[in-house]
Amino acid sequence: MAFQRTGAARAERPEGSALPLDTILIGDCVAELEKLPAGSVDMVFADPPYNLQLQGALHRPDDSLVDAVTDSWDRFESFSAYDAFTRAWLLAVRRVLKPSGTLWVIGSYHNIFRVGSALQDLGYWILNDVVWRKANPMPNFRGRRFTNAHETLIWAARGADAKGYTFNYEALKAGNEDLQPRSDWLIPICSGAERLKGEDGRKVHPTQKPEALLARVLLSATKPGDVVLDPFFGSGTTGAVARRLGRHFIGVERDRDYAAAANARIAAVTPEAEEALTAAPAKRDAARVAFATVVERGLVAPGARLVDERRRYEAVVRADGTIALGTVIGSIHRIGAVAQGREACNGWTFWHVAEAGRLTPIDAYREIIRAEDRLAG
Amino acid sequence: MAFQRTGAARAERPEGSALPLDTILIGDCVAELEKLPAGSVDMVFADPPYNLQLQGALHRPDDSLVDAVTDSWDRFESFSAYDAFTRAWLLAVRRVLKPSGTLWVIGSYHNIFRVGSALQDLGYWILNDVVWRKANPMPNFRGRRFTNAHETLIWAARGADAKGYTFNYEALKAGNEDLQPRSDWLIPICSGAERLKGEDGRKVHPTQKPEALLARVLLSATKPGDVVLDPFFGSGTTGAVARRLGRHFIGVERDRDYAAAANARIAAVTPEAEEALTAAPAKRDAARVAFATVVERGLVAPGARLVDERRRYEAVVRADGTIALGTVIGSIHRIGAVAQGREACNGWTFWHVAEAGRLTPIDAYREIIRAEDRLAG
DNA sequence: AGCTTGCCTGAATCCTAAT
DNA sequence: AATTAGGATTCAGGCAAGC
């Protein structure tokens, strides 16, 4: 068994275990997993290829080229080839999981429906799907779709009858301002100093995941000393976070360059002090409210008249949250600017609803929306 | 064809159409859809049922370690029935969709992975998956999982080569603080006065969707007067919102009680005023203007000098509407690209006329031509 | 030092009418 | 049907350079 070993994590190695703890196994994940003992792993985190099926090149509006994921490991002949690949690794993972073990998989709409169906077919029991909302996603440059601002994780037990899986509910709740942890997580993408760069200054791996995401997963569904297996180890985020949080890891990676980078990265990690291993508080939402939401929720009706404080200008509210000044249509800010012949305008304070002889700034309705949404932050 | 008709929506019924507009068809959706003409519907919104057999499996006493093969085979049978049902309605829907039509489906982790896989298998092309984040979800009482705080929608075109689908990008952006719309939507669940109650005070339908959700869908992906089909009409949220927003609906529902409640609900809806609904003009829909026309009509004279904003490049206007950069001759776009060494360039915004010390983008002259042509009808 | 400005980049299934 | 060419299109954040 070819492997590279990283410095041992702090927690004790289980007595008599045949597991190659805190090690990256070089090779195909199905073949490597078959060498491991059955029922030996507490949790699996898997970030499989997404099968993006990209066609041509994509340019930003400034004509720069988007550095897309075109690596050979992400190319599959067909959906059925991808499905066969998926079933194979899901089966291998299910064998090495303890009866109480759980699986986490991450994916996008390109592959996650295939993965979810396959794991249901194989007898896994879904506990949750979790949405990773990206605070700073790549925009949609052509304006032809919604900005793809999230990825999906599936959390599943080995079977419908699985009992005793780990879920650190109390710690998560305490770390979330005493609110129950929700299935939607707001976390920034991996960038800046956290992003591994080669000597040439280019990213080591095209799809490195943020450590905050793995930390949330491990703190939610494992205990200190648990063994976490990652069959698509890549740049080793799972290993780095596991070591930091006092969990053991086992990685499997086909690419020796990725594995080498991951080993160096993990060796540089300083494990947290024992008492610090509690759930990190959830990041709060920026309380940005769109005027379309105010209309959508019925606080201001389509067709309503908006006026400025001195009633010099009048605009009509439209169903989609734009407003019209004569024939000119745009956002509350843009139309406020147009009305005054200015470059910019804060539409929230400029526009008012006139009712019962009183002017109500639309900003008041924004506050109501914020109150409604506060719990969801 | 058995149906119940609601008061006609405001928009005109297309001439010679065989479609039962603004009507609820009573019956099985596959059978009813097969009676409709192919390629006739602009959008489909589907809220299919979950697999109840699955939930039966959940409650089955199953404490002992069951033979894994038998267990998964049994589960496969129930998934298989759900998959067959899903393929049937997805196929029927695909037939009635226009080539440029799109499908929206909503579901939770119980069924959405099956639906997503099936629609990919049938040739649909996913445009986005969208997360409906619930501002006020049902709490998780036992504290054994994350609070299930979202549902997933899939937005798909009829095929990978489908063109011309409706996406009201400019309006959505203007209604969203001038930021492009994202794939995660925060909307409260349906409750309070909006929730339909029977005479006994109990809710009419167990999974009534909020009107705000449907409004977001219809405003994103349809135009006024479009035909929206809902094969699982239920309490009729799709119809109520379609009527309010000046879209036509066709509903299919097996349960006569649901259909009756939906009809009453829709009849009580007041359509929005026309002016609040008209499609906001998008730049990409504006009439094309040739630069030759600008020269022809004397707005820019042959021989005039064009420069970029920073006056790094200078080109000469020719009588035929081409421009010359040194010895290179071509369109305003081609020459703008050549000047910067880029693949592409929008010549309308890149090139300017310098006069009286001020730079005027030639786009301004295009606007004048458009205004002239509008007056001429 | 501290602030402003500009540049770069991120799992992307990202155009369409006219010829 | 396939090709050509017009011309429309981006947000947050990290970091370096400039002032």
From TrEMBL, chains A, B:
Keyword DNA-binding attributed: yes
Annotated organism of origin: Hansschlegelia beijingensis
One GO MF term: site-specific DNA-methyltransferase (adenine-specific) activity
Keywords: DNA replication, DNA-binding, Methyltransferase, S-adenosyl-L-methionine, Transferase
Residue span(s) of domain RAMA: 273-371
Protein name per its UniProtKB record: Methyltransferase
GO cellular component, one term: cytoplasm
GO biological process terms on file: DNA replication; methylation
Pfam family, any one: N6_N4_Mtase
